[in-house]
Each structure stands twice: as C-alpha cells, then as structure tokens.
Fold this sequence. Notes:
The longest helix has 94 residues, at 2-95. Helices cover 64% and strands 19% of the residues. A three-stranded antiparallel sheet has the order 1-4-5. Strands 2-6-3 form a three-stranded mixed sheet, with no helix packed on it. It is α+β, with helices and mostly antiparallel strands. The protein is rod-shaped and about 135 Å long. It has a domain at 123-178: Head domain of nucleotide exchange factor GrpE (Nucleotide Exchange Factor Grpe, Chain A, domain 2, Roll).
Amino acid sequence: MPEESVGGDAERAAEEAAAEDVSAEEAEADLDAVLVTLAKERDELRELAQRVQADFENYRKRMLRDQTDAIARANESLIEELLPVVDSFELALGQLADTDEQVRKGVELVFAGLVDVLDKAGLERIDSTGVPFDPNVHEAVMQEGDHGDPVVADTVRTGYRLKGRVLRPAMVKVARKD
C-alpha cells in the first residue's frame, strides 16, 4: 500500500504541477489582456486630453480675437463721436485770424494734440480736392456741369478712414468738365 500512496503522490504532484502550469498560462494570458486593455484606454485618454487641449487653445484664441474686436469697435465709436469736435475745431481755427496771437496759438496746440492722438489711433484724412470722384469715399452734395468725368472740386466736410476703413465719407462738390 505504501507504494500506491507514493505513486499516487507522484501523480497528484504531477497533476498539481500541470494545474499550476495552466494557471500560470491563464494568469499570463489574463495579464496580457489587462495590459492590452490598459494600453487602449491610455491611448483613448491621451487622444481625449489632446482634443480638450486643442479645444481650449481654440477657445483662448477666439476669446482674444473677440476682445480685440470689441476694443476696436469701442475705439471706432469713440473716434466717430469725436469727428464733429474736430470739425468744430477746424471752423474755430478759421475764425481766429484776428484774435489775440496767444489765444490762437493755444487753440492750435490743443487742436494739434487732438489730431495727433487720433492719428496714433489710426485715423487718417481722406484727401479729396482735385481727385476723381469715388463713391466709396466721397458723398456728392453739389454738382457743376453735366458732361465729362466727375472730379472733386471742393470739400464741404472732411472724410476720414480708420485703419483703412472709411469711417465717414467726405462731403464734396463735384465738377464735370469736358
């Protein structure tokens, strides 16, 4: 009988060893499956993080552009409201010929300062007198003659561009000469 138990123990030991080999193989296969799943999940999360980062960068750029546009519109509105003040200053300067020299120079300095600030903001005058009439930058309020190409004869009110865009067209008198 002791031989059977020795032989049985050997068989049992062989079965356990075979079971351990199968368990080790199954554990290794399970571990490989878990690694593949984790690698796939890592790649998906990395892609998600990259998309979120790109979306945030696009959002940041859009907000910066929107803020810049809002500031530009606010500046444009303010400058447009200042144009009648500039017109009034120009009229006042025309009337100061026989006024005290110091008063005239003081008004000229204030006007020059205002014009300088507006120039730095991108405001530029539209030169009109003697140039061909352009309906994109001129507004005809008077006309002389009936034939020929229209040419600006006189400027009634100065026009302005702000950073290349017409802010206020120049009011002009148009002459047509053959």
